[in-house]
Amino acid sequence: MSDAEKIRVHAREEYVLPARNRKERRFSIRAGDVVRELGMNGRTPAVCSALKGPKFLQGNKLRLVDVSGPKSGVSTTVVCTYEFADAQPSSAPREDSWARLRGALKEVFAELGGGEAYLRAERESFYPPKADR
Q1: Residue 113 lies in a domain
Q2: What is the 3-state secondary structure (H, E, C) of 7-70?
Q3: What domain range is 19 assigned to?
Q4: pTM to 2 decimal places
Q5: Which residues pair with 83 in a beta bridge?
Q6: What is the reported pLDDT for 90?
Q7: Averaged pLDDT, groups of 10, the chain, 133 residues long
């Protein structure tokens, strides 16, 4: 097995498949991590090339979204970010988590006379009563 093939197999097993199983839309691979994990010191150009190559992308149904690092594109600090090309975009837009909370305490505040009344009562009882001197 060639070095490029070892790199592609390792990246698939350690990064692509776990990300797919977690149903992530995007994930990243740092070239230096692959170099260290495979003990390929001095083979950084081969790692960077394999991670950006069409065999790796097409074989795993990936789209290379971003490559960060030095301009040369060859370094242990290079980070490749991928998206799954075969992922089905959701038909419904994702609802914002904060938007789901809107109005969650509406009934509670209504029972207490409204939000303003609740805050006023809390402020009044925040400090202990002053002792007469």
Answers
A1: no
A2: HHHHHHHHHHHHHHHCCCCEEEEEHHHHHHHHCCCCCHHHHHHHHHCHHHHHHCCEEEEEEECC
A3: 3-84
A4: 0.64
A5: 26, 63
A6: 52
A7: 93 95 94 95 94 94 93 93 78 66 77 82 83 62
How many distinct structural domains can be found in the chain?
1
Q: Which two tokens stand for residue 20?
A: 């797919």
Q: The domain spanning residue 28 has which CATH number?
A: 3.30.1370
Say if 133 falls within a structural domain: no
Q: In whole angstroms, what is the distance from residue 64 CA to residue 73 CA?
A: 13
Q: Of 66, 39, 115, nearest to 51 (Cα)?
A: 66
Asked if residue 82 lies in contact with residue 65, where contact means CB atoms within 8 angstroms, the answer is yes
Residue 55 placed within a domain: yes
82 bridge partner residues: 27, 64
